[in-house]
Amino acid sequence: MSKTVLVTGGTRGIGRAISETMVKKGYKVAANYAGNDAAAKECAEALGINVYKFDVADYDAVGAGLAQIEKDLGPVDVVINNAGVTRDAPFHKMSLDQWQQVIDIDLTSAFNVTRQVWDGMRERNWGRVINISSINGQKGQFGQANYSAAKAGLIGMSKALAQEGAKKGITVNTVCPGYIDTEMVQAVPEKVLEGIIASIPVGRLGKAEEIASMCAYLASDEAAFITGATMTVNGAQYITG
Ligand code: CAA
User: Fold this and answer.
1) Among 34, 97, 171, 212, who pairs with 17 as Cys (CB 3.0-4.6 Å)?
2) Cα separations (Å) of 155 from 30, 167, 201, 230?
3) Which of the residues are catalytic?
């Protein structure tokens, strides 16, 4: 029987590409989203999948969303914690609200979702957790103290959970995309973005599909021995051991 995958933030950007790739691989896909109903509707129709609107920063809302997904599609076997936002500002201008929103949506969300599927994965002795971090969680980024902290937090969380899940057939890995051609990156001021592209040895932004194929691999049975890993997909913009 085909497995069920939940992709948070799964109707736009990198998340949408992940949803599409997982559909093509034969998974039952639940794509979560927070606010953009029009994009979610378009995604649901184009991919023929169910979309679920809930706030990943809200533990109880996640619980209700997961209950509905499990009712519709069965227990969640693969979680891809992809939902995230930016609230960029130099630290001397960053408000508590800008800090808190990013920590809640980009990091605490991974707790809210993973914690509520974890017991089921342990019981079934199989699971995949894939946390979508960022190059900026690895190297830090001017104007992103909040985002870099949240994305670095996902790497630490994955490394700890990988050890806890290992005996139960659950792998936990992090994918660190570089600058990918999505609305989030296109929102970076043009002059700044030009400089960023110039610093990517491959000479271009990444494609969302290039992140999705990594996720599909990590979700597969072939990747059973890869756990606690940080997979860097950034066109050699930041090379780390
Ligand atoms: N390094 C060093 N100095 C920098 C800098 C950098 N990267 N960026 C800006 N500065 C300097 C400016 O030159 C300026 O210096 P002066 O005051 O001496 O002139 C100072 O910082 C303040 O700059 P601004 O007045 O432009 O400040 P701002 O408040 O308008 O905006 C910013 C600053 C928000 C950080 C803006 O530069 C920006 O958006 N940068 C892009 C940040 C970025 O890369 N975000 C990634 C988004 S995509 C993403 O996050 C996806 C992913 O995972 C990769």
Assistant:
1) 212
2) 24, 20, 24, 7
3) 147
90 lines ligand 1 (CB under 6 A): yes
Question: What angle, 0 to 180 degrees and rounded to 10, lies between the N-to-C axes of helices 109-124 and 145-165?
Answer: 10
- The per-residue pLDDT for 1 is 74
- Domains of the chain by start residue, with CATH: 4-233 (3.40.50.720)
Find the Cα–Cα–Cα–Cα dihedral 145, 146, 152, 155, rounded to 10°: -170
Name the nearest CA neighbour of 134 among 46, 232, 66. 232
Nearest CA to ligand 1 atom 23: 90
Rounded CA separation 212/206 (Å): 11
Ligand 1 mutation pick, 154, 188, 197, 238, max ligand atoms within 8 A of CB: 188
The predicted-structure confidence for 185-231, as pLDDT tens digits, reads as follows 999 999 999 999 999 999 999 999 999 999 999 999 999 999 999 99
Residues 31/40, Cβ–Cβ less than 8 Å = yes
What's the mean pLDDT in 30-39?
A: 96
HSE of 168 in the Cβ direction (CA atoms, 13 Å)? 19
Q: Is the CB of 147 under 6 A from ligand 1?
A: yes
Phi, psi of 116 (to 5 degrees): -90, 0
